[in-house]
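Changelog-adjacent note: as of this version, every example in the card shows the full chain rather than a window. The one below runs 470 residues end to end.
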Amino acid sequence: MWWWLVACGGPAAAPPTSATPTAPEPSSVATTTAADTGPPLTETSATSADTGVQPTLHADCQLDDDNGLRAWCDITVDPPQPVEVTFASVDGGPSRVHTSEASVGEHRVGLFIMRPETDYAWSARTMGSEASSTGTFTTGELPVEAQLIQSSQGLATHQRFLHASPCQDRGMVVVTDVDDGVVWYHAFPPDKVVALQHTRDDTIITLVGSDILEIDWMGQPVRTMSTQRLLHHDVYRADGGLTYALFKETQKGVPPFIVDGFVVLDSGGAELGVWRLADHYPPQARHPVHGLDVHHANSIHVENGVALVSVRHTSMIVAVAADPALPDFGTVLWSLHGKPNATRAPTEYALTASAGGSATFKEQHHAVMQPDGRLTLFDNRVAADQNSRGLVIRLDAGVADIEEVYELTRHCNYQGGMALGAAGNPVLNCADRGLAYEFDTKTAEITWQQDTACATGTSGMIPRFVPVDP
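Full-length structure tokens:
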């Protein structure tokens, strides 16, 4: 094992990637201030083999006024046709190709995933000919809230992660590269970022108060969905475009228990359905540790019309019929309890542990049903002398068997998650310590770990590391 220290924006290079940006198009209006563009732009033409017409192309790529790690390329092509922009650091790093596939005469292509304070060369061209324009720009410096330090050990199979900056209470979200540090950032309204999802639509959503905010990789607003509820902890965009968000509310009565549920919104933000835990698991008494906060739901994941809700303070996973258009919406399909000996509602599954160790989970986070039908979750555990774990659980014939265990070397008191990286290896994160780990599925050993801290010296939690490949 070996150690290295990477200050975000360092000179190391990331592996090649490609992406199709979602910036609005077509457009020919430049919105950025000229940066150091290096050599003058060139404009060339060539004959298209398909049309026999000699196309012309002119492009101008410049940094976004508000974000030093984004650039906009305004491209004019005649006759109208798709275009692509290739860009790479001048020091010889790998290139990325961003495309605009519309057959129009004016394009606007966004460039993102770049190192700060680095010279980049770009080339815009048509896809069907050699017509091109070239130039350079220099990326800007990182804002203070995105200036991080990464200390890593081992080798990771996944290269980039989307997560909240540990410079907390500033609304800063970043993508960090295991070699290059911060390569993307976006400042949401100042608040502590807890909920964060990279959607299947290649957008990013988070919660701010009673609103759900959604942006694309260029920071352009996709939509804002406003509710009248106090949203918290997690949000999830399911197939079909429905958005699910956890909320909490104070129940009328004595004592005034704090209870949880989820709300379902359509693409326009209209509320389609509401589900409340208290309707199925009514609070009976104060929680012995958490008082009136008897439920504390902390994650929601929706797949194939079923919502999995993780309920921390009762160490319970609940599966709920999640399609508001169907008559069974809100029906509890099954539940799984991590402390089987505790007095609570019946469970449909007996918890076992063929992998060895304790056949329990306690105050868990991030329950996800994987494509192979197995359940994964981050088992925080309660006692400070117990190491937190990632669990893989197979549900079959009334038995919930813990068949894989990935144990950390420390206790993580709150938040945290378990995701599957590019090679299928589990990636766990200890939220309150800003730590991420990758495990080998064959040996269950840690093969990579990383400490991410705010460069100012004051670091908060990183609730969840989300593997991304933008």
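Structural remarks: The chain is about 0% helix and 45% strand.
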